[in-house]
Amino acid sequence: MVAAIANTGKNINGWRVGGLAGGDRADFHGDWLNRAAVAQAGIYANDPVEAMYPLTRTDSTGVDFS
Q1: Which mean pLDDT values do the consecutive 10-residue runs of the chain (66 residues) have?
Q2: Is residue 61 part of a domain?
Q3: Tag placement on the chain: N or C end, fewer CB within 10 Å?
Q4: Buried-exposed string 16-49: b where 16+ CB fall within 10 A, e elsewhere
């Protein structure tokens, strides 16, 4: 789960973008690992059309704090 959350979405300037959005069962198209990662990282996440949840695990100098 930790790896699934850390590697979700696309890396843009050190931010993981576009991977941790919620939704109902149909939104995940059978990707139950992604659905579980969303539940662990933010159980009440909005649908992708409603919100974006950028995630980072590094500070401004590039040091990983995970």
Answers
A1: 85 84 84 89 84 86 82
A2: no
A3: C
A4: bbebbbbeeeeebeeeeebbebbeebbeebeeee
pTM for the structure as a whole: 0.66
Instruction: Tell me which residue range forms the domain holding 17.
Output: 2-42
Give pLDDT, residue 64.
Answer: 83
| Counted domains in the chain | 1
